[in-house]
Amino acid sequence: MLRKPKKAWNPSIWASWKPFGIGEQYPNNYWEVIRAALVNFDELPYAWEILNKGVCDGCSLGTTGMKDWTLDGLHLCNVRLRLLRLNTMPAFDHKILENCEQLYTKSSAELRDMGRLPYPMRRDIGDKGFRRISWDEALETIASRIRATTPERTAYYVTSRGTVNETYYAIQKAVRAMGSNNVDNAARICHSPSTSALKATLGVAATTCSYKDWIGTDLLVFIGSNVANNQPVTVKYLHWAKKAGTRIVVINTYREPGMERYWVPSIPESALFGTKFAEDFFLVNVGGDIPFLNGTIKHMIINNWLDSQFIDNYTNHFEELKATLDAQSWEELESLSGASREEMYAFAKMVGEANKAIFVWSMGITQHECGEENVKAIINLALTKGFVGREGCGLMPIRGHSGVQGGAEMGCYSTVFPGGRKISPETAKEMSKLWGFEVPQTKGLIASDMINAAAESKLDVLFSVGGNFLDVLPDPNYVESALLNIPLRVHMDIVCSKQMLLEPTETVILLPATTRYEIPGGVTETSTERRVIFSPEIPGRRIVQARPEWEVFMELARRVRPELADKLFFENPAAMRQEIALVIPQYAGIQHLQEAGDQFQYGGSHLCFGWKFPTPDGKANFAALYPPRNELPEGYFLVTTRRGKQFNSMVQEHKDRITGAVREAVLMSSVDAEKFGLKNGDVVVLKNDLGEYKGRVYTAPVKPGNLQVHWPEGNVLLDKSKRSQEGVPDYNALVRLEKV
Q1: Whole-prediction pTM
Q2: How many CB atoms are located within 10 Å of the residue 11 CB?
Q3: At what angle do helices 44-53 and 78-88 cross, to 10 degrees?
Q4: CB 657 within 8 A of CB 645
Q5: Which one of 156, 317, 569, 694 is most buried, by most CB atoms within 10 A?
């Protein structure tokens, strides 16, 4: 049994004795409520209904209304409040787009604030801007271009913001009916290394535990993850975890202030005095996670802090891992990780003494060239004590986007079919039989490969549902030149973005999409903890010409392949859920979701429960790992990109209320600042062979030798050729620093 949190107030976990944290740097969440009310004043009843009945379209926590399945009480975060206006805003006057020249200087935020896309619109080469067209003209133009080329010269990308299971499923089915596997979504850029590593080691491809396991476990470890910024509702769980005696540990390059302390607005004790979360921080170099975790395991082996019975009976390859670790010296592990042998010992002792532990990670782990190996290093550590498949234990690649968990599971991936079936002639034959039409047998282009194909004039059509390659991928100049090389670009979204405004090579078409709350009959999403949740349709303001993406792709596929029209039609999302339940075994039950509050957790509360691993031999697999060698020449820094006050690439404020850093800040340690004769506010330039970034020094508790800059601004420093095995870009770089 997990320990229960004590309800009595406990001053030992207070962040400050100053009431309401007066004078402290932290978000004013009460102001966020007031701000949301003011911004949505013209649609307050609709906004309230969305908050009260809708499933959160912010992070992948998966609240329904303002409640969830972990704790009683109100759950409402500032991420969701900031996104609310995207659902309630009116359409802009389409004449704004008649001359795009005046829009080129606007920021992404200013373009969003113009309002919703009102109609299908078209811009041809030589046009100053867009003109309104009918849906029929738009879809026939797209269909005729697809018919005129070959499937391998078309590509389709789906963002994760607010995208639901039904949309993912319909889009990938439509694309495959049109003869292509070139369909990808944002889940790859975030957590495909997690999916791959979990599948290889444990036989599962998702979070193994539930959020409830956080509260009362012995040890809760966050590695390369900042939930206070990216999944702020979870700070409520952290508060109650502390009240239950859970020890919270953070392994990161930066001592994140929000992970150290926070004022949780919905809990009176925390709202008044704040809550101390992590008291144990281990700062490592960018890319130093594997050597730190390897050193931790070395200590555990030396001190016999292992569950030998579990290792002997339920795992493979531990001896190979041990031999690999024996060959790695402490000096090597200290140098590469940036942490001392003593620090590794301190963490190992915490893990060794814990009876239960959970490991949570995010893009600070996955978005590296060695992303898959980073995840396997975490899994190795968990397996030394059997911290999986039981209460209070687990491995959690936490999601930052609502519904993104379902993206790959629905098969909206260039490398897998629905249900995680790897693309092969055998699985293609299986899908062909299920759908009644021939399915392509070879893997398609992942997102970054789509851009490479465009740069090489090998792409004739790009259909992007949401997303903004200009902001999210490394080397934005290269991305822009590639996009300018595509004869037909189609952008379907609810608002205007920068990539829509790029000059057409031949033709650009814009299509207005509905939000999830506008889809007739309601839809579903899947949360981080594998909970499939019904999100109802909510009456309110409508953009008359906006259409659901799933419906558009089904019609487009019917126009391209009219002979398959009877196989490419769903009467409504409910009919689609019937098919999903048949095609994707773990989603059996989705067909019964039809009202607000309906949900189920596929796989139950714990995957691999009772140490039953769905691998060929029923055992979990250790992985022998060697640390990557990130040599740091004299005068150079390792730099990583970070999020501020933003949602994905949608920057919401110039200043991050948690850290106090502005967008152009270059976060660096005071040790490095003193070494280079720098002080706060000094202008510096970060340079490498790929580009340069001008910013201002902001001293912070960062590991010396490392820097942090905000994303997407720092993308100019990133190497587009550096990717993980699953094709995830490496959002880190080696730079030299110059004072201006």
Answers
A1: 0.97
A2: 8
A3: 130
A4: yes
A5: 156
Residues 337, 628: Cα–Cα separation, whole Å: 10
Beta-carbon contacts of residue 243 (< 8 Å; ≥ 6 apart) = 5, 6, 7, 10, 13
Q: Is 349 helix (H, G, I), strand (E, B) or coil?
A: helix
Token pair recorded at residue 680: 């706060």
Statement to judge: residues 317 and 372 lie in one domain: yes
Task: Write the pLDDT tens digit of every residue in 277-297.
Answer: 999 999 999 999 999 999 999
- Could you give the CA distance from residue 267 to residue 279 in angstroms, rounded to a whole number? 20
Closest CA to 443 of 421, 423, 427: 423
CA distance 374 to 728: 13
Those residues with Cβ within 8 angstroms of residue 739's Cβ, 6 or more apart along the chain or in another chain? 676, 677, 678, 682, 683, 684
Within 8 A by CB and 6+ apart from 526, the residues are 62, 165, 403, 405, 406, 409, 532, 533
**Integer angstrom CA distances of residue 72 from 66, 67, 330:** 10, 7, 47
Query: With 90 as the cut, is the pLDDT of residue 58 above it?
Result: no
Could you tell me if 666 and 724 lie in one domain?
yes
73 in a structural domain? no
Map residue 319 onto helix, strand or coil.
Answer: helix
Q: 185 and 227 share a domain?
A: no
In which band, very low, low, confident or very high, does the pLDDT at 57 lie, cut at 50, 70 and 90? confident
End-of-domain residue from the set 397, 432, 464:
397
Length of the chain in terms of residues written: 740
pLDDT score for 590: 98
Q: Which domain holds residue 364?
A: 208-397
My answer on whether 371 and 285 are in the same domain is yes
Cα separations (Å) of 205 from 121, 193, 280, 359, 530?
40, 10, 29, 15, 10
Instruction: Measure Cα distances from 626 to 191, 328, 384, 521, 674 in Å.
Output: 21, 8, 18, 51, 34
At 636-669, the pLDDT tens digits run: 999 999 998 887 778 888 899 999 999 999 999 9
571 and 439 within one domain:
yes
Strands (E), 352-466: 357-361, 394-397, 416-417, 421-422, 461-465
| Within-domain flag for 614 | no
427 and 367 co-located in one domain? no
Q: Are strands 531-535 and 599-601 parallel, antiparallel or unpaired?
A: antiparallel
453 phi/psi in degrees, rounded to 5: -60, -40
Residues 121 and 183 in one domain: yes
The neighbouring-strand residues paired with 655 are 662
Q: pLDDT digits over 28-38, tens only?
A: 888 999 999 99
**3-state DSSP assignment of residue 291:** helix
Q: Which two tokens stand for residue 444?
A: 């398609």
User: Pick from 708, 715, 729, 681: which is nearest to 256 by CA?
Assistant: 708
Residue 317 falls in which region: left (phi positive, over 0), alpha (psi -120 to 50) or beta: left
Q: What DSSP state is assigned to residue 142? A: H
pLDDT at 73 over 90: no
Q: How many domains does the chain have?
A: 3
**Ramachandran bin of 337, using left for φ above 0, alpha for ψ from -120 to 50, beta for the remaining angles:** alpha
Let me know: does 203 contact 614? Beta carbons within 8 Å.
yes
Same domain, 129 and 264: no
The pLDDT tens digits of the residues spanning 433-458 come to: 999 999 999 999 999 999 999 999 99
Could you tell me if residue 482 is inside a domain?
yes
| CA atoms of 15 and 304, how far apart (whole Å) | 36
